[in-house]
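Possible regression after last week's pipeline update?

I re-ran a chain I had predicted before the update to compare outputs. Posting the input and the new output here so someone can diff against the archived version. Not blocking, just want to make sure nothing changed silently.
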Amino acid sequence: MGSTTPAGPVLLRRFRPGAPGRRRLVLVVVLVAAFLATFLIDWAVTIPAQGATPAATASASSAPSSNQPCTVSTSNGCIQGTILDSKREPAAGVDVDVAGPAGFAATSTTSAQGRWAVSVPAAGQYSVTVDQDTLPKGQFLTNAADAKRTVQANLNANAGQIFQLSDQQGATTSDAGTSVTAARAWQQFVSGIRLGLLIALASIGLSLIYGTTGLSSFSHGEQVTLGGLLAYTFANQLHMNIWVAGVIVVIICAASGYLQDMVIWSPLRRRRISLTQLMIVTIGLSIAAQYAFQYFFGASTVRIQQSNPQTVTFAGVTLTVQSYVAMGIALVVLILTGLFLAKTRFGRATRAVSDNPALASASGIDVDRVIRFVWTLAAGLAGLSGVMLGLVLNGVNWQTGLQLLLLMFAAVTLGGLGTAYGALVGSMIIGVVVELTNLVLPGDFKYATALVILILILLFRPQGIFGRAERIG
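New output (post-update):
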């Protein structure tokens, strides 16, 4: 009698766990590396603060006129903005006066790109006034009474102000801000595409984690925050090239996902811990990570790049250069991820585990190895999303990922839990709807739209667009 060959492709037998001794060695190496990385980050953040001199705060309380970019530090903050005319072209040569505590007074003149910035030496309330005599000919503030504003400035932080110009004298800010025009709708639609692409980078990993493990990870948003804050550390504090810093950040975030599965999730799976208990662990991990971010980076918003972002108008849409680059990178990465899942053996093994883990294991697939790869991929993509969001939003703080978590859950639920392609489609829909809502809703209240969409999905199509309805009971 000949030997019987187990079912399944031969190549799938490669997904076998390593020896226990090798696992312990890798665990020790990763833990030591994480320990050293913690001190590196702490050093990078605290050394500049210790080396800062109080000369700026003790200097004279007035500053000369300037149109130079402002860079925040532990000894100063920045009040800055951009002034565009009625045709959305930069308004150059406009004077902006800033006055504040202790007799502080400074004037900034808008550059050829319409940007102005003033460095302030202390936290407090500052008045920002546009000199209307310096406005371009035929241009007026949409509301002359809005020429003077009060701004709260903080050290090591930016405070932005936008003044709208119109070619009609007597127009009001309220009318211009609430009117829905085709140009404004087109601007918000493209902004929604941008937001959807960046959400998709993170939500695809969240969906794959659910598909392969059944776990809804509430700590996934902190992977986004980690990516943004690490990019700030390497690009701003350690003065690395932003492209090199981005690659390093993605690698570190991917390694953190690998480490999480090795130390936390894999041992808990072997003990057959329920999904409810695992979900509670993710909530605790999320809270712990948020406190860690506040300890190392503080509660203020930090910028990956300190210079004022340049804007480019294309097809009637004005976005920053960072936005165009981030959209391009996100699109390329999403396409490569889709091709990997569809065309490679490991990608097909990942999809097999997502569809039916028991059948995949019976076919010779090492389910644990696939799950560990999914955690690694998900953390890397979330870290990349954090870097891109930090550049697009011109800042990142300890709760950036937390603010996007509801959008990510709404996206994966809309697209279909456990499906990568569904997460992509759901993210694009959520991003566009959220930004278009800004046409009628003020400020960040637009994010509440994601909650409304999530409730409607659960009421009328709980399986999502690409999900399969399942019989319960």
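Follow-up from reviewer: compared with the archived run. The first helix runs from residue 20 to 51. Marking as no regression found.
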